[in-house]
Amino acid sequence: MQESRAALLVVVTGTLMAAVDSTIMILALPTVGQALDSNLSTIIWAILIYFLLTAVLTTQMGRIGDIFGRSRFYNAGFAVFTLGSFLCGISPNDLALIGFRGVQAVGGAMILANGGAVISDHFPADRRGYAFGYTTFGWSVGAVLGILLGGVITTFFDWRYIFFINVPIGIFAVLVGYHYLKDREKTGATLDLPGFALLTVALSLSSYGAIEMASIGVTPEYLGVTMVGVFILVPFLWWEARAPSPTIDLTYFRDRLMSFSLLSAFLQGIGYLSIVFLLTMYLQGILGMSPLDSSLLLVPGYVVSGLFSPYMGRFADSIGARFMATAGIIIMVVGVLAYSTFTVSTNPYWVIPVSLLTGFGGAMYWPANNSAIMKQARRGSFGSISGLRSTLTGVGSLLSFVVTIAISGLSVPRDVAFAIFLGTTNLRGFPPSVAAAFLNGIHAALIVSGIILGVAAVVSYARPHDGPQRPRDDTSRGNAMPTTMSK
């Protein structure tokens, strides 16, 4: 097996596992909560802790991968993720499950942060769109498997198997990665511990406070926690501008193509990651469909995204990211606004053609934008940039949850909205006025998501036209100079 193909197989497998784990947990959460005799405000953290820790850790994990070896660190992440999955499966109570999901998240951050770097190490710039197309394929397939397996396992088997299925896949990936993946270079940089600590505290506090305000309500305590986290970013940026070996090399943001591509990814995460939650609320909460039946309506969109993303990635290699990524987001905007027109009398099968549309838009956007980001990265900092991209996407995912709960929950009591989000109730037993109010809240959240995606499209188009690119080998900062090594 060629080394580049082996690298792609391992990265696609990691992406697939991460996608399975995210969608399968959402579907299984009500069953898990009941089995562990947990309340909603506690068990929801089995999902949120994963989003929070991956958002906080990915930039730092990418930096560590640059220093100690990206392939080695990627494989270690697979091992940690697999161990965390096993521990989640044997969790005796809800708090243990949340803690072990944290272990999973550490491994997931190592995987997400270094996956793009491994691709960049093993593929030349003119073939990275093609490779990132396959990682999008892996995500789409994983999301479909998560949806299907989540419904099947929680219906016919013990919920613990949603975690146990990761174990054999993880062992296989670790063995393949250890045998085939070789670190071609390390940087001569050192770990930026002050920057690491400041960024971790800033993202942890701001994300935690925002999540709690969305779930419980705005209180002086949580607002203060959020603001402290935001303010800590100021000394972080001050330090990074002066650090000899920064966690985030701020000179990258002088490059319009890099900075606009990263900002586009951040905004796209905020605007689009919430759509699945909103559709789940609509189908289960308003229409009263079962979790399995409602999730099956979303499968065709993931299938289309998975099938077309490799071809779209290859096309982006030929024409550049600007047109492809921007057109993809515009298509997503059209789909999201179409969702906002659904009513209680809309045939639920209309979800299928709209999901096909948004899935095709995703197949255009993700490979093109990811490739544009990594093509601008200097050799020796692939892990840092891949980690930064994953951090921005992760923070965007957290903010998408905040937007979803905060806006859609304004129209009905918060505990009702939260229960609908978790799939533990629907509005069939409530007065029609409550259902109508909640539907208006969903429409408002969808429109806000569409506006955010529209801004992301403007940002995507504002980037310079890139066209077919060569890798950027600028090593103007002395600490970014790679040192060749063999394994």
What does the model show?
The protein has 487 residues and is mostly helical. It has one domain (3-184, 245-469): MFS general substrate transporter like domains (Growth Hormone, Chain: A), CATH 1.20.1250. It is 76% helix and 1% strand. The chain has helices spanning 3-35, 40-43, 45-68, 70-89, 94-122, 128-156, 161-164, 166-180, 193-215, 220-240, 256-272, 275-286, 291-296, 299-319, 321-339, 351-376, 382-408, 414-422, 432-462, and strands at 185-187, 482-484. A two-stranded antiparallel sheet has the order 1-2. Helix 4 packs antiparallel against helix 8, helix 6 runs antiparallel to helix 14 (299-319) and helix 9 runs antiparallel to helix 10. The two termini are 18 Å apart.
The helix/strand class is mainly alpha
Number of domains: 1
Please outline the major beta sheet.
2 strands, antiparallel
Mean pLDDT: 78
Return the CATH class. Answer: Mainly Alpha
Poorly predicted spans: 469-487
Provide the CATH topology: Growth Hormone, Chain: A
Q: What is the helix/strand order?
A: HHHHHHHHEHHHHHHHHHHHE
What is the beta-strand fraction? Answer: under 5%
- Radius of gyration, in angstroms, nearest whole number: 21 Å
CATH homology-level superfamily: MFS general substrate transporter like domains
Query: Count of DSSP E strands?
Result: 2
CATH architecture classification name: Up-down Bundle
The backbone outline, from C-alpha atoms, is globular
Distance between termini?
Answer: 18 Å
Q: Helix proportion of residues, in percent?
A: over 70%
